[in-house]
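Reading group handout, session on sequence-to-structure problems. Before we discuss, look at one worked example. The prompt was deliberately terse, the way you'd type it at a terminal:

> structure Glycosyl transferase family 1 domain-containing protein

The input record follows.
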Amino acid sequence: MRVGLDISQIAHGGGVGTYTQNLALGLAQMQDFKTVFFYSSLRKPYRGNLSNVKSFSVPPTLLELLFNRLRILPIETFIGEVDVFHSSDWIQPKTKAKKVTTYHDVIPLKFPQLSHPKIVEVHKRRLKLVEEEIDMVIAVSEATKKDLLEVSKIPSEKIKVVYEGVGREFKKRDQKDVEVFRRKYNLPEEFILAIGGIGERRNLGRVKEIVKDFSLVITGETIPYLPSEEMPLLYNAAEVLLYPSLYEGFGLPILEAMACGTPVITSNVSSMPEVGGEAAKYVNPEDMEGMIRVVREIMNSKGVREEMIKNGFEQAKKFTWEKCAQETVKVYREVLEL
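And the output record:
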């Protein structure tokens, strides 16, 4: 089996980039088939450790025009013949191979008001191609599968749920290293951590309103967006992760925090209860009083936090990138039998 995987999303970081990077590394380690990687970015050349990367300096807008609209060149023009091509969430090239794609969320389709109009247009255009051509869709959660069934014509039997994982770098760190990190960014001794983002989806307006009695640190606002190697130290330094997002296709920070021994408060909507299991505390993301009550309960009780930490470690162990890669390969083999 020869598999082609679009890894262009690595250039953009975020949850999709994390998924793409870790899936690619997992596939590259498997010996019973060959993977060729397609990478395209105008401003950010590929500098990773993967071999067999076909790299091109093409901007995303031109790539979208080429593959989603003009459709004059198949992906084989760039990567050679493959048996399966696994596309990103941005483009759907023509190909003679069996076609697999991953949906991380359907935010531009279900909540277009939360996305830029051009992004909404791209995702609508691509969805039509997916509906017409795709052999199998991977959804990163049951919630995302449910949403896909609501907004698309893709039949249920063509959607497989494959959970994301948490990297091994997310773990309890030496307290001396955490203190050095704390001093570097001038962080409080005790603080609640929130993850920043563009638009209203991360619910930061309400977060700022409810966290009045405690110090609040927000990535991208009160501190810069950190390089990936420093995120485990940030989770280790925090007392609690407050993540009352209005919608998530998966919610990687939930697992990352748990794996670092940080209690998690998150929303009781979309995929978040799936990911957090019984280890997180859940809130209605629109209920200000309810969120205040839960935050105070956890911040004021060391015993509650210790129980959540213990349960969080166990929950995080259920999700690994190795398992994600193995289950993705099962999807490839299944489409080859269709």
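Points for discussion. First: The first strand starts at residue 2 and ends at 6. Second: The chain has a mean pLDDT of 96.
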